[in-house]
């Protein structure tokens, strides 16, 4: 069955259809059996920037072990949660997956420490934000095709990522929800597919950061007893399973946390769709953001995030690795500024067009943690 026919049968009226795509900056003929968003997904997955996510820090560096999430495994988990939400809401799963796979592709090495460092160094040159950097990668820096720069993704994927880029960079505190931007000329909400990916990102990092911190011994199970979101999940798990070890309990609670948040989000989003009569793309755009947790769950999430900030993101071991990252990146930034001719050709072109600081930031942000620590690393995008 052709993708357009399949979409017409299964998608809700408020879902985005590939046949209605605005298209791409550089016109390309349609594909005989792949929708525009399937092609976007594949282009992102096959990009060098996506592959490098496997060796980029999510929260914890590789020095602390090999259990915790990398930027790549976090991305895949976000895509998994987002696809579940999309299927239940009859949204375009291919578009959701493409958006999810691209959402963190602009992250530099060493997680938020690397992002903060580059933002500081580029304070007089427009700053650095990993969401905006993702757009630079997929529109300019990746060189995968002979006829155009970048990946030539659909405008729906680019618009979704652009809206993320219009937000302030998310800090490691993660203590406040970030509303969709309301300062643009068109004061409209993004597609529901875009909203769902943001919600899935929140669900994934709240649950998995706690899991990683417990596994690494940075957090104790007892410390989470005061967190309602966690303690209620423990209670539900214990009603189903008896005599679990700490490790078994932790894994079961993480599963429960994700399922609970997904179920809550689906309920509140469906209610919002109905209450705003969002029966078309236009109605979704005119409505306030529809995909959000219930106020009760949102409040519980803030309590968990507050604990993670105090006890995990500000843990001495995390701060120590952050300081080391700042030192490494500082040395590499200074060396590249002194000798920009040693940059790979892609970044030398950026230096000519946009200045050396931006070119150096593009280059350093492309590195994995491992490559940043190697004095000889010069990847070509």
The tally of beta strands, per DSSP, is 0
By CATH, the superfamily comes out as Hypothetical protein af1432
CATH architecture: Orthogonal Bundle
Mean pLDDT: 88
**Count of individual helical segments:** 17
Q: Profile the largest sheet.
A: none
Q: Work out the radius of gyration.
A: 21 Å
The general outline is: globular
Distance between the termini: 36 Å
Low-confidence stretches: 169-186
The helix/strand series, from N terminus to C terminus, equals HHHHHHHHHHHHHHHHH
Structural category is mainly alpha
The helix content is 55-70%
| Name of the top-level CATH class | Mainly Alpha
Region (Disordered): 22-41, 159-188
InterPro entries: dGTPase, dGTPase-like, dNTPase_2, HD/PDEase_dom, HD_domain, HDIG_dom, PHydrolase_assoc_dom
Organism: Pseudobythopirellula maris
GO molecular function, one term: dGTPase activity
């Amino acid at each position: 069955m052709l993708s357009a026919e399949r979409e017409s049968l299964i998608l809700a009226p408020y879902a985005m259809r590939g046949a209605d795509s605005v298209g791409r900056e550089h016109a390309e003929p349609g594909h005989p059996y792949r929708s525009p968003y399937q092609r976007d997904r594949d282009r992102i997955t096959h990009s060098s920037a996506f592959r490098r996510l496997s060796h980029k820090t999510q929260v914890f560096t590789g020095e602390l072990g090999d259990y915790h999430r990398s930027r790549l495994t976090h991305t895949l988990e976000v895509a998994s949660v987002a696809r579940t939400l999309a299927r239940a809401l009859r949204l375009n799963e291919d578009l959701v997956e493409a958006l999810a796979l691209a959402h963190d592709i602009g992250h530099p090495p060493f997680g938020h420490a690397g992002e903060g460092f580059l933002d500081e160094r580029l304070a007089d040159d427009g700053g650095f934000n990993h969401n905006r950097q993702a757009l630079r990668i997929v529109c300019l820096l990746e060189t995968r095709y002979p006829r155009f720069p970048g990946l030539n993704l659909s405008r729906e994927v680019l618009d979704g990522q652009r809206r993320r880029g219009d937000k302030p960079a998310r800090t490691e505190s993660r203590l406040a929800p970030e509303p969709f931007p309301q300062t643009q000329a068109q004061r409209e909400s993004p597609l529901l597919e875009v909203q769902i990916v943001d919600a899935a990102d929140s669900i994934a990092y709240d649950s998995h950061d706690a899991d990683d911190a417990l596994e690494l011994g940075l957090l104790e199970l007892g410390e989470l007893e005061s967190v309602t979101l966690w303690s209620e999940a423990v209670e539900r798990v214990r009603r189903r399973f008896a005599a679990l070890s700490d490790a078994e309990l932790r894994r079961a609670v993480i599963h429960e946390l994700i399922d609970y948040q997904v179920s809550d989000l689906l309920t509140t989003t469906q209610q919002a769709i109905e209450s705003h009569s969002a029966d078309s793309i236009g109605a979704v755009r005119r409505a306030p953001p529809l995909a959000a947790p219930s106020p009760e769950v949102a409040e519980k999430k803030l309590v968990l995030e507050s604990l993670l900030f105090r006890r995990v993101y500000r843990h001495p071991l995390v701060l120590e690795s952050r300081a080391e990252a700042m030192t490494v990146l500082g040395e590499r930034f200074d060396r590249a500024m002194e000798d920009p001719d040693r940059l790979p050709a892609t970044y030398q072109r950026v230096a000519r067009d946009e200045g050396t600081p931006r070119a150096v930031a593009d280059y350093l942000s492309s590195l994995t943690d491992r490559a940043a620590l190697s004095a000889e690393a010069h990847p070509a995008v």
